[in-house]
Amino acid sequence: MGSISLPFSPMKRKIHPRVHVIGSCNGLVCLHREPYSLTVWNPTTGSYKAFSYYRHIVRNSYPLEKTWNCLKPLRITLLSGFGYDESKDDYLVIVAWKDKREENHFDFYSLRSSSWKSFDVALPNNTTRRRDPGLFFNGALHWLPEDINDDQILVFDITKKRFSVISKPEKEVISYHAKLIVLGGCLALYFTVKSSIHGKIWIMKEYKVHTSWTLYKNPKGLFQPLCVSSDGNLVGLSGNSSLMKARANVERELSYASRVHVGYHTYDDHKSIMYTQSFMPLPSDSEEKKKKKRELGQLEEDHNEVKQGKRRRSTEDFTATTFESSPIFK
C-alpha cells in the first residue's frame, strides 16, 4: 500500500481541520477542508486549485445545522457535488443552498472561469437536504435522500441542466451506511439491512431502467464495495481494517477470498473513492498556458513587424533614426 501527500500546507496548530472527499471525476479529486475551503486536485501531477465558498455562500446562508458535531462536508447546503460539463469542457463544484430569507439558490464554481455562477434552473419542489455529496456518473450527479424511507434518488444532468429521479430497487428501510457507487460501469447501491449484520448490493445493469436492478447478497454487512477488478472480482473494504476480494456465485451471493490489511479506520473518519490516473491539466492551468502562449505569440508578431520595418527603412533613400528593439524582444 502506498501513500500520497494532500495539497495542503502544514498546520501550525495542534487541531487539524477535517478533510472530506466531495467526489472524483476524470482523474481529478475534489476535497473539502473545514471550515470553508474547497480544493480540486490532480494527485498524479500534483496540480490543484483551492478556493473558498465563505464569501459567496456561508455569510449569506440559512443555518441548516447549528452545531459543528456533524462530520458531513458543506453542512449548510441542500446539495453538493463535483462533476464534468462536457458541453463546456469544464469541471464544476455544485452547491444548492438556502439564504437567510430561506430562498433556494443553485450555484456552481467553474474551474475554467475561476468564479461562482448560478444555474438557470430551479430546484425540484420540496428539495430536502441530501446527506452525502452527489455521485458523478453518466454525466450526472446522483443523491440519496436524507430520509431513509424516501425511495427516490435525485439526479441532475450537468450538461442538459435537468433534474430527474431514479427509484431505488426496493422500499425496504435501509441503514445509515447506504451509499451510491459505480461498479463495473453501472450505478450501484449498497447498504446494511436494518437490525441485521447482512448487507445488500443492488446494481442497475441498464441505466434508468428500474427492472434492471440486480441484487447481490452480502453476508458481511460491513463490506464496502469499491470496484470490480479485471478478473471479475469485487474489491472492497471489510470491517475496519482490510481490503478484500469477493466473488458472486450463481445465486448472486458473495464469497470472500484474499485479504490485505490497510490499517484501522471507522466508517465515520474515512471515505474511499475510485480514482483514475490522469495527466490532464486543470482547466484553469490550461487556460493560463493558452494565455501565456497568446502573449508570447503577440510578442513574436510585434517583433516580426519591427524587423520588417527595419528592412523597409534600410532600402529607402532617406535619413532615419535607427530603431533599437526593446530588451523584451532579445
Automatic annotation (TrEMBL):
It comes from the Eukaryota. Residues 281-330 are annotated as: Disordered. Pfam families: FBA_1. This is F-box/kelch-repeat protein At3g06240-like. Residues 295-308 have a biased composition (Basic and acidic residues). Residues 16-218 form the F-box associated beta-propeller type domain. Residues 317-330 have a biased composition (Polar residues).
